[in-house]
Amino acid sequence: MASTTSGDVLPTGGRIFTSIPDVFFIPEFVFGGLVWILVASTRVFMENPEGWVMFVSVFCFVMTTLWFFIFLCGANQSSIWPSLDVGYHFVAAVFYLSASVALAYVTIQLGVLSPILIGDSLKIYRLTIAAVVMSYVATLLYFLHAIFSAIRWKRS
Questions:
Q1: Whole-prediction pTM value?
Q2: Residue 121 belongs to domain spanning
């Protein structure tokens, strides 16, 4: 019975910049950081779910950074890491999807409740729209990373 070693499954070091699921690390940093910055620069109104959006963006940014450095240093060579990779990126995609939907709802309500946006209100509205777009892009990136990691896990 042939056994496969996990050393051939997950890349380490500079190879993470060339393997297909792991190349998503950098865009995840960028778009997740943009969500964090854009939401942090807006005004939070009462009963606003932007706290959840901030939690998701900060949590995923920190965990993706930790995940990136684990892969970069080569500490991912145990047989459990491919399944952990799929699990983390799936949870991150679900978290970001829930945060994106909540943020989009708040943005729609902001536009409906204030049909005439001028000055600072218009600026906040535009920042929130940008945060929604970046949040959905981050959701897509985490989802793609989860799918390609699942394919890699299935091959191992």
A1: 0.82
A2: 19-68+78-155
Compute the 3-state secondary structure of the chain and give helix, strand, coil in percent, each to the nearest 5: 75, 0, 25
Which residues, at least 6 apart from 22, have a Cβ–Cβ distance to it below 8 Å? 11, 16, 71
DSSP 26: H
14: in domain: no
Q: Is residue 135 part of a domain?
A: yes
Nearest alpha carbon to residue 15 among 72, 98, 87, 81: 72
Tens digit of each residue's pLDDT, the chain (156 residues): 344 444 456 777 777 777 777 778 888 888 888 888 888 888 776 567 888 999 999 999 999 999 888 888 887 777 788 888 899 999 999 999 999 999 999 888 877 767 676 777 788 888 889 999 999 999 999 999 999 989 988 887
Q: Does residue 13 form part of some domain? A: no
